[in-house]
Design brief:
disordered C terminus; LOXH1 protein; Lipoxygenase-1; five-stranded antiparallel beta sheet; elongated; 1 helix; 34% strand; four-stranded antiparallel beta sheet; 8% helix
């Protein structure tokens, strides 16, 4: 009883928009959404760029409409990337949490938009800023609430009282090389 005879709908979301709700009509199998079966559908849409989520559900009609969905894999024919959306839950008013629709985020981190670019920027930022955390440096932060400074000293002492008349003046965030 893990399959469904209900009408199944999907909305695909990417960095350039979404498909809107689309009914999954023509599977490559003669009978769709059967237990243990993989169904394949062609969905025509403008190129959405990198995909990040889907909303999938059914209309709840028909006998035995509850459905256990393992996962959805979308193959982008332009980039040849596969986007995996894991579910492994019931879409059934009488099972699990009673929901017949699920919002699923992409689970394959290699396809997340800009993941490699973000990682490169993180590495570049750390390379430019790591000198501040070298042994012997005093880290000093300005606290807007107390209008004083908090100092993290090289010997692990923390001066949280903060001198309001610090010789280095006021700054939102200040690093002092000792």
């Amino acid at each position: 009883n893990a399959g469904t005879e209900a009408d199944v709908y999907i909305s695909v979301y990417g960095e350039r928009g979404d498909t809107g709700s689309r009914q999954l009509l023509r599977s490559q199998k003669s009978k769709k959404f059967l237990k243990g079966q993989t169904d394949i559908f062609a969905v025509e849409a403008v190129h959405l760029g990198h995909l990040y989520k889907i909303v999938i559900g059914h209309n709840g009609l028909g006998s035995g409409n509850g459905w256990f969905l393992d996962k959805v894999v979308i193959k982008d024919p332009i980039t040849d990337l596969d986007y995996t959306f894991l579910c492994h839950r019931w879409l059934d008013q009488g099972q699990d949490d009673g929901s017949i629709a699920r919002e699923l985020a992409v689970t394959d981190s290699s396809t997340l938009p800009g993941r490699q670019e973000l990682e490169l920027k993180r590495e570049e930022t750390w390379a430019a800023e790591k000198w501040k955390f070298q042994k012997g440096n005093t880290l000093q932060f300005y606290n807007r609430l107390t209008h004083g400074f908090i100092c993290l000293n090289p010997d692990s002492r923390v001066d949280a009282l903060g001198d309001k008349k610090n010789k280095y003046g006021k700054a939102f965030l200040m690093w002092i090389y000792a």
